[in-house]
């Protein structure tokens, strides 16, 4: 790390870091991508040449300083290069979610006024072509994958490799201009613009400077002792700040290798082949993998299943203590070592986690049981708390101080304060510059002294100094009896069960809580197959009596656990429905980062909520849905409302206090 920090004051842009990496680590791998089943590799020296050719091609195409260049597609080295090349020519890269529908893309492209769009393939190109009449500033589109693009009108359409070829051909004429533009870049130059997920309204363009990105990358890398030798798998949406800071910010600061999977379908196979040393995933990835593990164990032989559960119980008892270096008896250590040979080690290798030195989860709270499961296996999984507006990092968990119920201590150079209402505020080198073309929102979020209101409620623990997040400040409320309503706490407990994919709790201002449940089709479908239960659709399986009874037993267990918390025992689930459809971003019910849009769900399924509270045993409903090709339709369903067991007296006890 000492070597990397040499001349850090001069490293004030991504192109400057690229130049340093090409000089210092020229022959080391910078990018790998699996294509046609084979891993392709580019060194830092080769990467610098590829990016220079693209940057010269962009200048040749007419990209000016200050232009916005939208980038849409799956994680590929070429698209990461596009972001650095855009900055090199003085433009601003704006990555978009590749699964966004055309209407969502139209808003972002129109809002930032993108003149240029770089897309991965024909699917993304078609979305832009569909909306180009709405985009008055749009001029040129560059596509990476030429398949299916031959017969398109190429007046405004250009192949990625051709732009690079034109850049190489014009090297001598344009290299002076490119160098001049790069020389202007400093800490105050815009590095990237990322759009928020828009849980409460239209997405906002978060402007992040080089200072925001590079200082955040530097501080976080030093905190976790990241080196040039790390390997990461870059598979999360490129439009998400988490991917940007890990796959670009930290990768360019440290000089480590970014590995891109062949496709979303091969991600788990590619993960096992790479064996990353540094890994980041939102809770849904860890939840999904745990579900798959449990499904596979149900299909295993009796002896194997018994051994798995026996050693897993031991890991739960001592694994976390061993990982954190706390004292553990010799016999327990020996048994854990045996478990590592027979169960934990093979399981970690199967998951692709065998080499992980540091793992992170963020985006939303992870269920404590899921978190403890991975740590008990010896995986150094930690939580961080962050936001797009903070360039990710607000709090981090130091090694040896990792807990499921807190998000750690303030990250390096981050200040945190809690206001009288319990809302968390921070300021740091990562604090965003502004919301693009939205001074009102900027002023309401960031004050004159640089303090940013997070919208989350929390408190610092006495003694440890760790921050605990209660919930989104806007979602925390009170039950009718005055006890606290914090939906996320209960929802995370429900999602620990492999057959529950999503849960949404309601109860603010009411006398009791009710819930919507989404089943996990993979887990429940596997159960149905093992039990010879035929089903024709998600809706049919979700309404099966045995499925409803299984979910009811989970809700009862969660209620027992919630009842033990004197502050939140009023949040027990009294009644629930298993929804007839999965909550979906295409239907506006979730963001692209899979956060529930609570208010929209509440309005859309108002008839079901009414039935949950009025004592009905069933409710018939009609719901509008969006199909993959963009067409609208509707589905009808009659849902069974299930009563859950609530621990007697728990709510009254809190109210009496």
Question: What is shown here, in short?
Answer:
With 657 residues, this protein is of the alpha/beta class. Helix content is 40%, strand content 22%.
- Report the radius of gyration as a whole number of Å: 26 Å
Q: Kindly report the CATH topology of the largest domain.
A: Rossmann fold
* Total DSSP E strands: 30
What structural category characterises the helix and strand content? alpha/beta
The CATH level-2 architecture of the largest domain is identified as 3-Layer(aba) Sandwich
Q: Kindly report how far apart the N and C termini lie.
A: 55 Å
Low-confidence stretches: 1-8, 649-657
Textual characterization of the structure:
The longest helix is centred in the middle third of the chain and has 22 residues, at 302-323. The chain has 22 helices and 30 strands. The protein has 4 domains: 8-280, Rossmann fold (3-Layer(aba) Sandwich); 281-383, no CATH class; 410-473, Luciferase, domain 3, CATH 2.30.38.10; 477-656, 2-Layer Sandwich (GMP Synthetase, Chain A, domain 3), CATH 3.30.300.30. Helix 2 crosses helix 6 and helix 11 (283-299) packs parallel to helix 17 (521-530). The strands form 9 sheets. Strands 4-3-5-6-7 form a 5-stranded parallel sheet, with helices on both faces. A 4-stranded mixed sheet has the order 2-1-11-10, sandwiched between helices. The protein has a 4-stranded antiparallel sheet with strand order 18-19-21-22. Helix content is 40%, strand content 22%. The radius of gyration is 26 Å and the shape is globular. It has 657 residues and is α/β, with parallel strands linked by helices. The N and C termini lie far apart (55 Å).
């Amino acid at each position: 790390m000492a070597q990397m920090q040499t001349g850090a004051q001069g490293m004030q842009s991504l192109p400057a870091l690229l130049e340093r990496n090409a000089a210092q680590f020229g022959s080391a791998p910078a990018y790998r991508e699996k294509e046609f089943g084979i891993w392709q590799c580019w060194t830092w020296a080769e990467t610098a040449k590829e990016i220079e050719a693209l940057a010269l091609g962009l200048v040749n195409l007419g990209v000016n300083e200050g232009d916005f260049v939208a980038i849409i597609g799956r994680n590929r080295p070429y698209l990461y290069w596009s972001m650095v090349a855009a900055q090199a020519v003085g433009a601003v890269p704006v990555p978009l979610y590749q699964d966004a529908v055309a209407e969502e893309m139209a808003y972002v492209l129109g809002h930032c006024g993108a003149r240029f769009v770089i897309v991965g393939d024909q699917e993304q190109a078609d979305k832009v072509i569909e909306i180009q009449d709405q985009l008055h500033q749009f001029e040129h589109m560059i596509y990476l994958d030429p398949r299916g693009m031959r017969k398109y009108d190429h007046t405004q359409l250009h192949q990625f490799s051709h732009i690079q070829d034109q850049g190489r051909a014009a090297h001598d004429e344009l290299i002076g201009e490119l160098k001049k533009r790069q020389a202007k870049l400093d800490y105050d130059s815009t590095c990237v613009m990322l759009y928020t997920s828009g849980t409460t309204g239209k997405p906002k363009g978060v402007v992040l400077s080089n200072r925001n990105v590079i200082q955040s990358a530097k501080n976080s890398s030093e905190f976790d002792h990241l080196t040039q030798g790390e390997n990461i798998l870059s598979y999360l949406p490129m439009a998400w700040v988490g991917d940007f800071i890990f796959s670009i910010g930290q990768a360019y600061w440290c000089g480590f290798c970014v590995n891109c999977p062949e496709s979303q379908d091969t991600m788990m196979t590619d993960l096992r082949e790479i064996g990353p040393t540094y890994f980041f995933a939102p809770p849904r990835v860890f939840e999904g993998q745990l579900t798959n593990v449990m499904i596979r164990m149900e299909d295993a032989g009796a002896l194997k299943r018994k051994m798995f559960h026996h050693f897993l119980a031991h890991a739960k008892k001592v694994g976390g203590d061993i990982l954190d270096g706390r004292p553990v008896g010799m016999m327990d250590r020996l048994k854990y070592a045996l478990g590592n040979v027979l169960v934990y080690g093979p399981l970690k290798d199967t998951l692709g986690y065998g080499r992980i030195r540091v793992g992170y989860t963020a985006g939303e709270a992870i269920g404590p049981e899921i978190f403890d499961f991975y740590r008990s296996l010896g995986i150094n999984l930690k939580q961080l708390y962050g936001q797009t507006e903070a360039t990710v990092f607000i709090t981090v968990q130091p090694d040896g101080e990792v807990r499921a119920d807190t998000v750690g201590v303030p990250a390096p150079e981050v200040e945190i304060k809690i206001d009288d209402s319990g809302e968390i505020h921070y300021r740091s080198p990562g604090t965003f510059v502004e919301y693009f073309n939205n001074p009102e929102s900027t002023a309401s979020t960031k004050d004159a002294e640089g303090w940013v209101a997070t919208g989350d409620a929390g408190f610092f623990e006495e003694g440890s100094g760790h921050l605990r997040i209660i919930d989104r400040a806007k979602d925390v409320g009170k039950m009718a009896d005055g006890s606290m309503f914090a939906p996320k706490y209960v929802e995370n407990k429900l999602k620990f069960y492999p057959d529950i994919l999503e849960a949404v709790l309601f109860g603010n201002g009411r006398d009791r809580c009710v819930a919507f449940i989404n089943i996990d089709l993979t887990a429940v479908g596997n159960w149905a197959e093992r039990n010879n239960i035929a089903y024709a659709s998600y809706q049919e399986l979700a309404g099966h009596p045995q499925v409803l009874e299984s979910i009811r037993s989970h809700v009862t267990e969660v209620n027992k656990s919630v009842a033990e918390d004197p502050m939140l025992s009023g949040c027990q689930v009294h009644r629930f429905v298993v929804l007839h459809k999965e909550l979906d971003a295409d239907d506006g019910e979730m963001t692209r980062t899979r956060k529930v849009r609570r208010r929209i769900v509440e309005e859309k399924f108002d008839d079901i909520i009414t039935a949950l509270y009025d004592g009905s045993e069933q409710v018939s409903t009609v719901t509008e849905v969006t199909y993959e090709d963009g067409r609208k339709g509707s589905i009808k369903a009659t849902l069974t409302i299930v009563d859950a067991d609530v621990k007697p007296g728990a709510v009254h006890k809190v109210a009496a206090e």
